[in-house]
Amino acid sequence: MPHPQPLAFHPVTASDLPDLESWFADADLARRLEAPTPDWLAHVSGGTEAAAWVVRPVGGGPALALMQADRDGPGRAVIAIAVRRECRHAGLGRRVLDTFADGPGSAHAVLVATVEPDNLAALRCLQHAGFRPAGQDDDGFLVLERHRERVCL
Q1: Between the CA of residue 3 and those of 6, 67, 129, 142, what are the distances in Å?
Q2: CA distances from 152 to 136, 149 (A)
Q3: Using one digit for the tens of pLDDT, what is the confidence trace for 43-52?
Q4: Hey, CA dihedral for 135, 36, 91, 31, is it positive or negative?
Q5: pTM (predicted TM-score)
Q6: In the chain, what is the greatest distance between 2 CA atoms, to the nearest angstrom?
Q7: Which of the listed CATH numbers 3.30.70.260, 3.40.630.30, 1.25.40.10, 3.30.365.10 matches domain 7-147?
């Protein structure tokens, strides 16, 4: 089996928006997340409280996923992930989450995801990436958390 190509995280720019917006023609994705807009871009690129990345193969290529993180108190970030439709159900989401946790997400001790209870694919993906159930929020979404492991040498 060939080794999967490494992933690179690039901050989202205005030139990424048309491609990313096209992903939301998929009814399931559009039902789960809001399509990126110029206002959203300003939110994720205008400070230290939120950030978003386009995930591509190292060396370039088409966008494979979109990753967002919003600070939620000291050491915590609420994340969202969208995977290009034709790349789903092949383990890419888990790879993105693992790479994120070891890269841009490593600034946070706890990564938090909220998922609709009927989004079984997202729940499986998050659980395979080390997220564990942590309750339910006021809107009925399931809350899952991944805690950074501390290694003492």
Answers
A1: 9, 23, 18, 33
A2: 32, 10
A3: 999 888 999 9
A4: positive
A5: 0.92
A6: 49
A7: 3.40.630.30
